[in-house]
Amino acid sequence: MAGTVSVDDVDLALLELLRADARRSVADLAREVNLSPAPVGRRIARLERQGVIAGYTALVNESKLGRGVEAFAEVRVRGDADIAAVLELAATMPEAQEAFTVAGDPDALVRLVVADAEGLRRAINTLRHSDGVVSTRTLLVLGSWRRRPGAA
């Protein structure tokens, strides 16, 4: 597969540890994989350079910030429309957290996080009125879970 990089079992172990807690120190990671900190630091730097580690992020509880309404917008576009335009539009919307183009029906999914129903209405209307969009369907999230690395 084009663009793939070669990794070994130690790299995979480091990636799993970083997925579970990206704030772990290099010294702690080194203890876990039975190496000294210097080679672990070099491995992490290499994985970052190669794009295997694309970044680090914090998981935020949006409801604590008054943004407790989450929804997915299914977006359908005209046959001659550029689906990439939906991703570009979503990238400009502060309510949009993620966007995916997908095979089948719909053409794209946009995950939205807003404060209330009015915020959701505005975000959906922004998507709905964009060039090439023929319809949207909104799915309100009632509950969720996320698989955490290392969890059984």
Automatic annotation (TrEMBL):
Mind telling me which InterPro entries this protein's record contains?
A: ArsR-like_HTH, AsnC-type_HTH_dom, Dimeric_a/b-barrel, Tscrpt_reg_AsnC-like, Tscrpt_reg_AsnC/Lrp_C, Tscrpt_reg_HTH_AsnC-type_CS, WH-like_DNA-bd_sf, WH_DNA-bd_sf
Its keywords, alphabetically, are:
DNA-binding, Transcription, Transcription regulation
SMART domains this protein is in?
HTH_ASNC
Is DNA-binding there in the keyword field?
A: yes
Q: Which domain of life is it from?
A: Bacteria
- DNA-binding in keyword set: yes
The segment(s) forming the HTH asnC-type domain are: 7-68
This chain's protein is named Lrp/AsnC family transcriptional regulator
Record organism:
Conexibacter stalactiti
User: What lineage, starting at the top, does this entry show?
Assistant: Bacteria, Bacillati, Actinomycetota, Thermoleophilia, Solirubrobacterales
